[in-house]
Design goal:
This protein is of the alpha+beta class. It has seven helices and 16 strands. A hairpin with a 6-residue loop joins strand 13 and strand 14. The relative contact order is 0.10.
């Protein structure tokens, strides 16, 4: 009887990020999940998931079932390693798990830890809905809510700054919506909500020209609108505006408070290449660009 060649890299990665460890496999192809105090908080079990169907030519399906139930994490996950035709399935970087909260509903986390389309989405009673991703165009998208003693806020940030791209424009968009604490920021309601947005689009055919728009909506009605062309780049605009950078920094702080990884969360899911492309939001990668950009001024091309 040949030994089984196990591959639990996917499961092991999340377990290690949470600060837990594995012991095994046992003779029954089971690993124990241990917390920081070496208490068992779950297991990974290699098992048959489907008996197959000889008449239809379907083969048996095997895989791994993971159950993690610790003080702050619940993760119940089954992964097939082959399909009904016997093909070995690729291992992706997607994870879905719950973060336990006292006296309220758990936070639901969906995270993609991979070089392709890294993302985080969170549904939380305390923090609301959060969504962060970097798409195939190397465009950052961020949407999250926060609150103070008197106001509720929702911020949206879109940023793309890739040199020598003949397909897509570079852009910087920052939007903030706010209302009093006793109201809600529902997407389908503008009652009591004030929205401000600034956007800059850098034409891919004109490297140093920006079309900038500023808009304000009060209770769903457009109150102010400004539109101008400037000589400059989205990088310079983002540095000069600063609000998007501050918003991203606050999100980076929040996400580290919400997801109990032992490492910094965004540095975990993003590659070095992506963080260098987004270096304006990652001071550890900015270096010379940060020193130069604030000294440059956007110039109105109509002057």
């Amino acid at each position: 009887m040949s030994l089984i060649q196990h591959n639990i890299e996917k499961e092991e990665r999340l377990i290690e990020l949470l600060g837990y460890s594995l012991v095994g496999p046992s003779a029954s192809n089971t690993w124990l999940i241990l917390d920081e105090n070496q208490n068992q908080v779950g297991f990974i079990k290699y098992k048959k998931l489907y008996n197959g169907n000889k008449k239809k030519g379907y083969t048996k399906i095997f895989g791994y079932h993971t159950l993690l139930d610790s003080n702050n994490i619940y993760w119940d996950y089954t992964r097939s390693i082959n399909d009904i035709n016997g093909n070995i399935l690729d291992i992706d970087g997607y994870y879905e798990f719950d973060i336990k909260r006292d006296n309220q509903e758990n936070d639901y986390v969906h995270i993609n830890i991979s070089a392709f389309l890294p993302s985080i989405s969170i549904k939380s009673m305390e923090y609301g809905y959060m969504n962060f991703k970097v798409d195939y165009k190397n465009e950052l998208y961020l949407n999250y809510k926060s609150k103070t003693d008197k106001f509720n806020f929702e911020e949206v940030l879109i940023y793309r700054n890739i040199e020598n791209d003949s397909y897509y424009d570079n852009k910087y968009i920052y939007q903030i919506r706010c209302c009093k604490r006793d109201r809600e920021l529902y997407c389908d309601s503008s009652k009591g909500v004030v929205t401000r947005e600034i956007s800059g689009i850098q034409d891919r055919y004109c490297d140093n020209k920006l079309k900038i728009e500023e808009n304000t909506w009060v209770f769903g009605h457009l109150r102010t609108h400004k539109e101008n062309d400037y000589y400059g780049t989205v990088h310079e605009m983002a540095v000069k505006h600063q609000y998007g950078i501050d918003s991203f920094s606050h999100f980076r702080y929040l996400i580290n408070q919400i997801i109990p990884f032992k490492e910094e969360v965004l540095s975990t899911i993003l590659s070095d290449e992506i963080m260098k492309n987004l270096s304006i939001f990652f001071p550890e990668y900015e270096e010379e660009l940060v020193e130069e950009a604030p000294q440059k001024k956007l110039t109105n091309s109509n002057n």
